[in-house]
Amino acid sequence: MPFFNYLNTNHAEGPRKWYIKACPGDAIKVYLPAKALLRERGIRVSGEHTTYNGDNVITDVKTYFEASTDITPFFMHLTLMADIKYRVEQSEHGYEVFEAGTHIGYIYSPIQSKWSGSLDFGVEDKSVDTGLTQDDDHWWNIRANPLDYFTKEVRQSIVAAYQHEYQRLVDDGNYPFADLEDSRADFNDHGKIWGIWFKDEFPNAFSSDAGHSGTAWSIINVVKTEDLTKETYWQTLEKFPDLSGLFVEQARKEAVGKSLYGGGPIGESRFFILFGDDTTGVARIDKSRDWEGSRTIYLKYEVIRHSESASDDMLKIEGFLGRGDAEGSFSDKAVQFRRSPCGEAASEGDRGSC
User: Fold this and answer.
1) pLDDT class for 354, splitting at 50, 70, 90?
2) Partners of 45 in the β-ladder
3) Contact 181/229 with Cβ under 8 angstroms?
4) H helices present in 60-178, as ranges
5) What are the phi and psi torsion angles at 227 (to 5°)?
6) Neighbours of 23 (CB within 10 A)
7) Which long-range contacts (CB under 8 A, 24 or more apart) does 236-242 make?
8) pLDDT higher for 185 or 85?
9) What is d(CA 314, CA 306) in angstroms, rounded to the nearest whole number?
10) Which of 116, 45, 123, 114 is nearest to 79 (CA)?
């Protein structure tokens, strides 16, 4: 799954990393792509010690390797070689330097598993500033396309290896994001509904401590048709020529605070503007996964501009079961969204992670 990808109801803000799959039973080794330093605090274990492919490993580990003062390649859900963690812990400096090409672990995908194994791989670069958060070093502000950090020869080999998968997506014609070389990090459209929105009643939409992270509608995003990969989404575009875009809602947990509409979020929807424009109007969202059963909601929305910057845009939006109701006035059930993860009411502690 490429860097520019917003069809993920667990990360409606956009994961900004690669998802690399392994079929059940395939022992896929993971190698460090560059010489890098690993500190004790850069190892975060959620899994357990076990044996995999004859090696002592630790499952479900996040690792943050420092390739330079600015650049940090990271892995999530890595099955880490136990010796890597041991060497870091035994170092008198609290860190260990590993050479490029070091076997650091596996994608965990045992043969008895019902699902493919998955590894997250990404790059954080402190020299990158998308301007999306108040804190320049916030992870959401500094993630970059991993492809851009390989040498030209390696990039070409990765793109070439991806062509088989890309052709499969072209043949299918129903996959909206497939461009491995698309490095865009900000697609917020000033004064318009397009882009990423954070629920304004939460001081920090990413806060796990406050229980906001991952909750229904804590984050929504609206992607216009022009931002989709048309080569791999051609069949859907032909079937729905009036499609305005996609509407993706955070849907990992139950709603906290106001709900956008009843029955919980659809998650992934096709978005059709029925009247008005992309600033103020009424839209219909239809469940994209219609093989699971159809579902339709009508959305009344209004984008409020406060300055010449997209960062302080506000979105007022409300969901209805019928179009006629959506064409009326907003009620007190309307939900407010903002562009920034943190709002004005955020505490100093909140702002430290925004």
Assistant:
1) low
2) 61
3) no
4) 82-90, 139-142, 152-172
5) -90, 0
6) 13
7) 236/173, 236/174, 236/176, 236/270, 238/173, 240/270, 240/272, 242/272
8) 85
9) 8
10) 45
Distance between CA atoms of residues 24 and 112, nearest Å: 7
Instruction: Specify the range with the lowest mean pLDDT, choosing from 14-23, 72-81, 163-172, 274-283.
Output: 14-23
Separation CA 79–CA 59 (nearest Å): 4
For residue 312, the 8-state DSSP code is G
- Encoded tokens for 121: 């791989």
237 token code pair:
């575009």
All domains in the chain, ordered by first residue: 18-145 (2.70.70), 195-351 (no CATH)
- Alpha-helix residue ranges (DSSP H) falling in 189-257: 234-239
Q: Tokens in use for 33?
A: 């792509």
CA distance 195 to 206: 17
Distance set, CA 12 to CA 121, 196, 204 (Å): 18, 8, 15
